[in-house]
């Protein structure tokens, strides 16, 4: 069960986070309402899989980099008030696993926590459908180029034999790549991959083919 430490937030945000995590039987909130000055002590003491940080109370973005450097086993999920694309990029470049708006839907916050606990990342993307504001697309950054190609074919509904023919590899190699992809996404089958796609949680960058 992933363990979580949460920083101090505004009352409504803090209450919502506590309720969300408490209602999820697969998450364990071991400490909440941690002041920015006590964050490092809390992470050092509890060694949580995920720490939820409040961007508005950080002393500076460098604090994220320091926590990421000193406690690499803890994924850092940063919540911010209407973060810009620059905020997203800065937090991610400094080692955060995710940077989400405090207005993000509850189910997406929980999904981000679970994915962060598995070593996955939450990456931003600009979309006109959301007024041009940065939105979050869940996925991974550690697929190999070949795995990205196989994932794209899987998302297109190709069979293993069709993928093998298109990529000029063996069917058993396709199966091996698929198993690795599913493991990295924290799923077990094509059906679960399709579910993630329907929920908008896994996409491919159309320019590079890389998962985003």
Protein architecture, described:
Helix 6 crosses helix 8 and helix 7 (160-167) crosses helix 8 (171-185). The strands form two sheets. The chain has a five-stranded parallel sheet with strand order 2-1-3-4-5, with helices on both faces. The chain has a two-stranded antiparallel sheet with strand order 6-7. The chain has helices at residues 11-23, 39-46, 62-70, 85-93, 106-117, 145-155, 160-167, 171-185, 190-198, and strands at residues 3-7, 28-34, 50-54, 75-80, 98-101, 121-126, 134-139. The model is unreliable at 125-141 and 204-212 (pLDDT under 50). Helices cover 44% and strands 18% of the residues. The chain folds into two domains: 3-139, Rossmann fold (3-Layer(aba) Sandwich); 145-198, Winged helix-like DNA-binding domain superfamily/Winged helix DNA-binding domain (Arc Repressor Mutant, subunit A). The chain has 212 residues and is of the alpha/beta class.
The end-to-end span amounts to: 26 Å
Taken together, the total number of domains comes to 2
Task: Give unreliable regions as ranges.
Answer: 125-141, 204-212
CATH evolutionary superfamily of the largest domain: Response regulator
Order of helices and strands: EHEHEHEHEHEEHHHH
For the largest beta-sheet, the strand count, sense and barrel status come to:
5 strands, parallel
């Amino acid at each position: 069960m992933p363990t979580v430490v949460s920083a101090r937030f505004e009352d409504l945000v803090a209450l919502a986070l506590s309720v969300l995590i408490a209602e999820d039987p697969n998450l364990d909130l071991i400490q909440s309402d941690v002041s920015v000055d006590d964050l490092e002590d809390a992470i050092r003491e509890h060694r949580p899989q995920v720490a939820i940080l409040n961007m508005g109370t950080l002393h500076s973005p460098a604090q994220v980099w320091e926590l990421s450097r000193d406690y690499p086993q803890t994924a850092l999920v940063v919540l911010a008030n209407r973060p810009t694309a620059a905020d997203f990029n800065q937090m991610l470049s400094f080692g955060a696993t995710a940077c989400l708006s405090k207005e993000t839907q509850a189910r997406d916050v929980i999904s981000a926590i679970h994915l962060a606990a598995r070593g996955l990342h939450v990456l931003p993307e600009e979309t006109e459908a959301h007024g041009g504001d940065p939105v979050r697309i869940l996925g991974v950054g550690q697929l190999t180029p070949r795995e990205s190609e196989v994932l794209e074919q899987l998302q297109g509904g190709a069979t293993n034999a069709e993928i093998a023919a298109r990529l000029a590899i063996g069917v058993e190699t396709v199966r091996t790549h698929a198993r690795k992809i599913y493991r990295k996404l924290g799923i077990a089958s094509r059906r679960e991959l399709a579910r993630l796609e329907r929920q908008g949680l896994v996409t491919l960058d159309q320019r590079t083919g890389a998962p985003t």
